[in-house]
Design brief:
The structure is a homodimer.
Chain A (H helix, E strand, L loop, with lengths): L19 H8 L3 H8 L7 H14 L5 H8 L4 E6 L5 H16 L3 E6 L4 H13 L4 E4 L6 H9 L4 E4 L7 E5 L1 H14 L4 E7 L4 H16 L3 E7 L4 H12 L7 E4 L2 H13 L9 E6 L12 E4 L2 H17 L7 E4 L3 E2 L11
Parallel strand pairs in A: 1-2, 1-3, 3-4, 4-5, 5-11, 6-7, 6-8, 8-9, 9-10
Antiparallel strand pairs in A: 10-12
Helix pairs in contact in A: 1-2, 1-3, 2-3, 5-12, 8-9, 10-11
The structure holds a DNA duplex (30 and 30 nucleotides).
Chain lengths: ~350, ~350
DNA sequence: CAAAGATGTCGAAACGGCTTCTCGGCCTGC
DNA sequence: GCAGGCCGAGAAGCCGTTTCGACATCTTTG
C-alpha cells in the first residue's frame, strides 16, 4: 500500500492505529466522508457509506472515541473509587455498578486505591485528567478539597455508603436495621446482647454500631461491644473470641457485616455452641455466602443492583441539572430470615 | 473574568472543564508556557512556572490526558474484560490487576460483560474506540476475529486462564495439580474417587477435569464424574447431591474450584458425613474462604498478585517488542494443606 | 569597553484524529 | 436551460505538545 506511516524509521515509536484518513484513502473519499459514514443521520449516499464501511472493515478501523470526545467534551469514562474491590459486599456493588454503567454506554474505570487522603486525591487527579464524566466513590472519606476540585471541573460525584452533605449520596438505612435487630432480640427475651463491630469502622459501620447500642439500651438490654481490627472474617473471629470466651456470654450478637458474622459463627461453633439454639446471630449485607448451608445467616439485605441503578439514575439527573442541591437517597434494608435467628412471625 | 465560555447562551451544553487556555490567561502567559510548566524538564523560568502553577491551583486545572494522549498516541487506558468480576478467584485476580496497573501508571477499565462472542466483540470495540493500550482477558473465549482486530490496531493482548496460541497468555498448570490430587488420593488407598466439575466449563476447568480422570484411570481408580450447571457454590451443591446420595459414594472428591468444593462439603455435612473422616476434599484456587474454619479446605493455590505482576510484565515486554512471538507463562500451583484432606507427609 | 557569540525564555504555529459547518459541483426535474 | 437538492471536499476547532524562531540577557573576546 501507499501508507508508510513511520515504518522504515529507526525509531520504533508507537504504532499508530488505523485512522479515518487511512480509511478515506482506501475507500477513495475524503476524511469527512468517513466521519459522516459513522455518524448516524448524516448525509451520505448509501453507496458511499457502504464503500467506506467495507474499507473500515478491511482495515479494522474503529472511531477514536478519545478524539471524538475531545471535541464533544465527553469521554464516556466514569470513575469508580474503591478500596479492596474484591471483598464482601463491595465486590458485588462494584460489579453491579460496572454493569449498569456499561449498559448506559459508559466506560467504567476502576480505581483500586487505599483510604488515605493522598491516595484519594491522586485517584481523583487521574480521573479528572482523563476527563471522567463522573466519579462514584464506594469507600473512603474524601477531604473537602476533593469535592471542591470536582465542583470546579464540573464533575458530578456520587458517594455511596456515607452521608455527605456536599455531594449526591446513597446510603442504606443501617440505623433502622440495627434498631430492628436489637428490638427483635429483646422481643425474644434476650437481655444479654453482643455487638461485633470493627475498629476500622467507616461512618456506615459506626452508624450501625451506635444505633444497635442505643436501641438495646433503650429497651433495657445489656450490650457487650467488641471490635475486631478489620471489617472482615478475621475481625469476626477476633470479635467472636472476645464475646464468646467470657463468663456472661451474650445470647445474641448483631454483626455490622456478614463477613464478621461468619467469623463470629465459626468461632462460636468451634467453641461448641449451636446456632441458633445457643446463640443467635444477625448480619448485614446479605452476600451470597450468607445463604450457604454452613451459615444460613439471617441478615439485612443490601441489593447491589438496586443501588447501582439508583447511582446511575443520580448521574443522569445530575448531568441534566448540574445545579440541583445535593440529593440523598436512603434505602431500606429488609431482613432476610434464615437459620441463624428466626424472629417470631409477628415481630 | 473575561472568560465567558458559552455562559449566556440558551444551550446549557456541557460545561467544559478548565483548560490550559484559561490558566494561560489567568497567568498572563501563552498556552505553550502552561504546557511547558507541566512538562518536567521543559525550559521555563522558575518564576513563570510558579506563576502558572499558582493560577492552575486557583482554577483547579488538571492537564487533559485525553488530549495529551491524542498527540502522544497513548491513552494509558488498559482494558480488563471479565465476566462476573465479583465472584470467586476472578474477583481477586481482577482486583490485583487493577492495583498492579494503577501502580504502573495505567488507568484500568473494567468491562463487565457476558461470555458470548457478540459481547466480547462489543467490549473490544469499546476498548479499541478508547484506544486502550492493551487488553487483558480474564474470561471467555474470544473468536479469532478478536485477535485479528487487536493485531491490526496494534493492541497488545494478554489472555489469562486459557491456552491461546494467537496471543500472550498466562495459565496455571491445572493439569499437574489435578494429577497430583488424583495420585494423593490413590496413595491414601482411596479407589472410589469423585470429580466435581462444571457444565459451563471453560478450557481451564476442563483441563483439570480431564487430567484428574486420566491420572485416576492410570492408577486404577474409579472416578464418578459429575457436573453442576455452573462453576459456583450452587453447582457444588448439585455435584454434591449427585456424588454423595448414591450407593457407591466416593471416598474423596476433587473439585475443579473452591466454590464448588464448598458446595460439595456443605452437602456432604448435611448428609451427615464428616470431613475428612468420611470424605476427603481437594479444591482449586485457594480463595480466602478456603481458610475459614467452616471449611479448612485443602486446595491448590493460585496467587492473584503473582499472576497480575506477570501480566503487567508481559504488557511491558510486548509494548517494547511488539513483534515477538506469543509468550506463554505457566504457573505451578502449590497444594495448601488444611483439614479437608491431609496427605501423608512424604507423598 | 564594544561587539560578537552563547544561553535561556517565551510566543506563534503546526500537528494529532475527529466532528461539523460551509461552499461548490453535479444530477435531477420541469 | 435553469432552479433546487444532494453529496463531497475543505477548513476550522477541540486541547494539548513541540518545533522554530525572536528576543533578551549574559559571557566571551579583541
Amino acid at each position: 500500500m501507499t501508507a508508510d506511516r513511520n515504518s522504515g524509521d529507526k525509531t520504533p515509536d508507537k504504532i499508530r492505529s488505523v485512522s479515518a484518513l487511512h480509511v478515506a484513502r482506501q475507500a477513495g473519499v475524503s476524511r469527512s466522508a468517513v466521519s459522516r459514514a459513522f455518524t448516524p443521520g448524516a448525509s451520505v449516499a448509501t453507496e458511499t457509506r457502504e464503500k467506506i464501511m467495507r474499507a473500515a472493515e478491511e482495515l479494522g478501523y474503529q472511531v477514536n472515541d478519545l478524539a471524538r470526545g475531545l471535541l464533544a467534551n465527553q469521554s464516556r469514562l466514569v470513575g469508580l473509587v474503591v478500596t479492596k474491590p474484591e471483598v464482601g459486599f463491595r465486590a458485588h456493588l462494584a460489579a453491579a455498578l460496572t454493569k449498569a454503567l456499561i449498559h448506559r454506554g459508559n466506560v467504567p474505570v476502576l480505581i483500586n486505591t487505599g483510604q488515605t487522603e493522598q491516595e484519594l486525591i491522586a485517584a481523583q487527579k487521574t480521573l479528572l485528567g482523563h476527563r471522567a464524566e463522573a466519579t462514584i466513590i464506594l469507600s473512603g472519606s474524601p477531604p473537602s478539597s476533593f469535592f471542591e476540585l470536582a465542583r470546579r471541573n464540573g464533575q458530578p460525584l456520587v458517594v455511596i455508603g456515607r452521608s455527605e452533605p456536599e455531594a449526591d449520596h446513597i446510603q442504606t438505612d443501617g440505623a433502622a436495621a440495627a434498631k430492628l435487630a436489637a428490638s427483635h432480640f429483646v422481643a425474644h427475651g434476650m437481655t444479654r446482647l453482643g455487638l461485633a463491630g470493627s475498629l476500622s469502622g467507616t461512618p456506615t459501620i459506626t452508624e450501625r454500631e451506635d444505633a444497635f447500642c442505643a436501641e438495646a439500651k433503650r429497651l433495657g438490654a445489656e450490650v457487650a461491644v467488641v471490635r475486631g481490627n478489620d471489617t472482615d472474617y478475621a475481625g469476626g473471629l477476633q470479635a467472636g473470641r472476645l464475646l464468646i470466651d467470657r463468663s456472661d456470654r451474650p445470647q445474641a450478637i448483631f454483626c455490622v457485616n456478614d463477613l464478621i458474622a461468619f467469623g463470629v459463627m465459626d468461632h462460636a461453633r468451634q467453641a461448641g455452641l449451636a446456632i441458633p439454639e445457643d446463640l443467635s446471630v444477625i448480619g448485614f449485607d446479605d452476600v451470597p455466602e450468607a445463604g450457604w448451608l454452613a451459615y444460613r445467616l439471617t441478615t439485612f439485605r443490601q441489593d447491589p443492583e438496586l443501588m447501582a441503578a439508583k447511582a446511575v439514575e443520580l448521574l443522569d439527573l445530575r448531568q441534566r441539572q448540574p445545579d440541583l442541591a445535593p440529593i440523598r437517597e436512603r434505602f431500606n434494608v429488609p431482613l432476610v430470615v434464615r437459620g441463624s435467628f428466626v424472629p417470631h412471625h409477628a415481630e
